[in-house]
């Protein structure tokens, strides 16, 4: 009995000890756990917490790999954000949900990583160790708060007072009126404020503000601003040029004006010069516009000092705008001849040193709109002379270069010449080339022309074959007379009752100007023979660079020479000396002379100093009725005198005055 | 400021009777782009600028009023105001304005 009791007691004691031990162990374990913060089991909890936070915070689908970058782990599946979590909850993902989910009695079933960790965690611990689990509840997604509609029961109508309705009406009316007044006041105030603000705005607008540097530089570099300044400054300068004070009152004032005695005086109107286009350059050719009598064009050769500037420049000048040119055109090589197109008021043709013919348009910018090619088809030598012949519908540009080539071009087809003519003189000793320096067509002639050459002779040439004469140079009729290169050749313009259009003047380097009568084409010669001038003007002291008949007065012509002199001759008055001789400019040579087209009152002179002088000859330009017959007599006198001296070949029938 | 512009403007202001010029930009705000001459300095210049702006606006409005048809009527190309002492020449554009003051009697 006592044994049994002893055994029982022993068993009980053992059990108690065990229990005590177990309790002590447990307590120890707890304290250990509590002390060791990153203890394994607590670590597990913490990891779980972290994971949960991360998952909740980032909301990136973590149900795939163990790393936190879903995109790299499974390349096929794109990261699926928040919907993952939902899915994770509804469908249990790739089943690693272990049996230890009862261990994971926390509501977060995040899937594999968690479970895996739990497993790991659990394996670390002693198998019999039952971890102390915490319930972690996290809302992974936010459901929108359901709006709870609450209804209040209320009485809708206010308490009705039935005692004094009238008073309340009045009160109501007063109230309403008061409210209205208040409103009106408010409206009035608002309006005032508005008006004030509008006014302030206006004032601010009207205030001239200074531009910031940025804005200013932005404006200054805009191309339309530059265009605007060009245009408007031109207009203002033209207006400034006027000089006449139109509110002048003639009743007051003691203006002592010097009276100009016109008479036989040649007056300078202006000298066009611009540094940009004239500095260190010479004028090589001039023309007046057929459409706008105030416009003239001048071509310049190259500036040897400035290598960056274009070699050739053409400038259009306006008589009403003295300080600057209307238009400036550039060219790659020196421009030696220039002419306005008589049929298109916007086009300007130029012939260059390289042989190219260029076409500029006043509507475009600096560069030519059309060019002839630099090939053997056109000219390859400097083009010193060109002329436009024909009518509005059928016109050609005839150009000649110093190798004897004469080309005819169609205005819109400058790619190749319409015809090319080589002027060859077979009789020359070394070479057949004829070096043309100047060319002119008689008025009303378009198929035959005369050329002046470097050797001093003048030849006649035909553009086409005709009865008795071939196309090309007529080598039988040689107009011999000059001892040096012929610089200018001009036929008498066809104007007035008597036809002098077979007379032409030539100017040459041998200091003389000679008057010739062109041989009639009706009787072509078959043997070479020389034709002499009718008359020779030897007044000049220097090379005579140009001679031009006056467009209106039959007996008037002008010459310019290398000493800067401009002579006006009147054959009816005096054949030995010019009637007026003016020194132009500073004594530098004048290269070209051109009378203005309308009535010849003005003459444009181009100097080798780059200045374009415009002179007015006044009443000298007006011919009297008798000028024509007088000229006939004069010419007859020339021929008669020449015959008497044995110079001109006598042909009695031809002395019939004038023809 | 491109050199051709400079040259043009210097040429303009060096004319013997020109007293100064004003380059304004039109639009909601009239503002001075550039000016030259003693007359257009500082406050005086600003006053001139606002006055000229208003003048051009009012003349343009007047033109539009008298224009018969609805479409783009007449536009001011050039205004020359001759006063007793000077002459103001205004050349307006859609966006800019050049005003030159000169003394024709000199």
From TrEMBL, chain A:
GO terms (BP aspect): transport along microtubule
Pfam families for the chain: WD40
InterPro entries membership: Dynein_IC, WD40/YVTN_repeat-like_dom_sf, WD40_repeat_dom_sf, WD40_rpt
UniProtKB keywords: Coiled coil, Cytoplasm, Repeat, WD repeat
GO molecular function (one): dynein heavy chain binding
GO cellular component, one term: cytoplasm
Subcellular location per the Swiss-Prot or TrEMBL entry: Cytoplasm
Principal cellular location given in the protein's record: cytoplasm
Bias-annotated ranges (Polar residues): 91-103
This protein's record includes keyword Transit peptide: no
Regions annotated as coiled coil: 190-217
Compositional bias segments (type: Basic and acidic residues): 18-36
Intervals holding WD repeats: 479-526
Region Disordered: start-end pairs: 18-107
Domain of life: Eukaryota
Protein name per its UniProtKB record: WD40-repeat-containing domain protein
Source organism: Suillus fuscotomentosus
Lineage, top ranks: Eukaryota, Fungi, Dikarya, Basidiomycota, Agaricomycotina
UniProtKB/TrEMBL annotation, chain B:
PANTHER family attached to this UniProt entry: DYNEIN LIGHT CHAIN ROADBLOCK (PTHR10779)
SUPFAM superfamilies the record matches: Roadblock/LC7 domain (SSF103196)
SMART domains: Robl_LC7
The protein's name: Roadblock/LAMTOR2 domain-containing protein
Domain Roadblock/LAMTOR2: 5-102
Similarity section: Belongs to the GAMAD family.
């Amino acid at each position: 009995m006592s044994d049994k009791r002893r055994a029982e007691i022993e068993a009980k004691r053992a059990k108690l000890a065990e229990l005590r031990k177990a309790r002590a162990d447990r307590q120890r374990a707890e304290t250990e756990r509590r002390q060791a913060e990153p203890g394994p089991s607590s670590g597990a909890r913490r990891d779980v917490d972290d994971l949960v936070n991360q998952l909740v915070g980032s909301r990136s689908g973590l149900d795939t790999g163990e790393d936190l970058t879903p995109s790299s782990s499974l390349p096929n599946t794109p990261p699926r954000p928040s919907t993952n979590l939902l899915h994770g909850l509804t469908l249990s993902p790739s089943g690693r949900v272990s049996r230890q989910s009862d261990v994971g009695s926390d509501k977060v079933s995040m899937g594999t990583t968690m479970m895996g960790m739990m497993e790991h965690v659990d394996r670390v611990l002693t198998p019999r160790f039952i971890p102390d689990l915490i319930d972690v509840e996290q809302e992974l997604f936010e459901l929108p708060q359901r709006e709870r509609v609450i209804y209040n029961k209320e009485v809708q109508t206010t308490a009705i007072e039935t005692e004094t309705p009238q008073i309340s009406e009045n009160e109501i009316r007063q109230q309403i009126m008061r409210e209205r007044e208040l409103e009106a006041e408010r409206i009035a105030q608002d309006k005032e404020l508005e008006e004030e603000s509008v006014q302030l705005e206006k004032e601010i607008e009207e205030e001239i503000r200074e531009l910031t540097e940025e804005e200013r530089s932005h404006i200054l570099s805009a191309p339309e601003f530059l265009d605007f300044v060009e245009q408007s400054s031109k207009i203002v300068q033209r207006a400034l040029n006027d000089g006449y004070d139109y509110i002048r009152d003639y009743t007051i004032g003691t203006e002592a004006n010097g009276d100009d005695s016109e008479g036989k005086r040649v007056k300078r109107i202006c000298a066009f010069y611009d540094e940009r286009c004239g500095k260190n350059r010479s004028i090589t050719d001039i023309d007046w516009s057929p459409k706008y009598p105030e416009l003239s064009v001048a071509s310049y050769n190259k500036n040897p000092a400035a290598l960056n500037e274009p070699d050739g420049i053409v400038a259009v000048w306006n008589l009403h705008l003295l300080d600057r040119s209307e238009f400036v055109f550039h060219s790659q090589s020196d421009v030696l001849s220039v002419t306005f197109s008589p049929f298109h008021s916007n086009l300007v043709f130029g012939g260059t040193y390289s042989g190219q013919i260029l076409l500029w348009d006043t509507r475009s910018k600096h560069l030519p709109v059309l060019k002839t090619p630099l090939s053997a088809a056109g000219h390859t030598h400097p083009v010193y002379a060109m002329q436009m012949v024909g009518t509005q519908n059928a016109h050609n540009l005839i150009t000649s270069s110093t190798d004897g080539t004469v080309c005819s071009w169609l205005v819109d087809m400058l790619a190749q010449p319409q015809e090319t003519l080589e002027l060859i003189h077979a009789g020359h000793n070394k070479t057949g080339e004829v070096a043309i320096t100047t060319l002119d067509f008689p008025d009303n002639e378009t198929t035959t022309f005369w050329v002046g050459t470097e050797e001093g002779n003048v030849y006649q040439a035909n553009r086409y074959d005709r009865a008795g004469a071939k196309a090309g140079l007529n080598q039988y009729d040689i107009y011999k007379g000059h001892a040096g290169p012929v610089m200018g050749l001009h036929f008498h313009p066809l104007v007035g009752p008597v036809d002098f259009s077979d007379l032409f003047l030539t100017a040459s380097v041998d200091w003389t100007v000679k008057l010739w009568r062109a041989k009639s084409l009706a009787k072509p010669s078959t043997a070479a023979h020389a034709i002499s001038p009718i008359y020779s003007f030897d007044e000049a002291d220097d090379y005579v660079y140009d001679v031009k008949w006056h467009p209106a007065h039959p007996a008037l012509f002008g010459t310019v020479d290398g000493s800067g002199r401009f002579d006006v001759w009147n054959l009816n008055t005096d054949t030995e000396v010019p009637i007026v001789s003016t020194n132009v400019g500073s004594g530098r040579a004048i290269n070209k002379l051109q009378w203005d087209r309308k009535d010849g009152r003005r003459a444009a002179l181009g100097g080798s100093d780059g200045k374009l002088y415009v002179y007015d000859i006044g009443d000298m330009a007006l011919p009297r009725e008798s000028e024509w017959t007088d000229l006939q007599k004069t010419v007859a006198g020339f021929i008669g005198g020449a015959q008497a001296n044995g110079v001109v070949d006598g042909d009695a029938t031809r002395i019939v005055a004038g023809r | 400021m491109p050199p051709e512009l400079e040259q043009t403007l210097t040429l303009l202001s060096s004319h013997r009777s020109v007293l100064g010029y004003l380059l304004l930009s039109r639009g909601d705000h009239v503002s001075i782009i550039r000016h030259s001459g003693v007359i257009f300095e500082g406050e005086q210049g600003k006053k001139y600028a606002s006055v000229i702006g208003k003048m051009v606006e009012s003349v343009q409005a007047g033109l539009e009023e008298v224009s018969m048809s609805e479409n783009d009527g007449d536009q001011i190309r050039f205004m020359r105001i001759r006063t007793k002492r000077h002459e103001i020449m205004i050349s307006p554009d859609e966006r800019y304005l050049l005003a030159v003051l000169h003394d024709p009697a000199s």
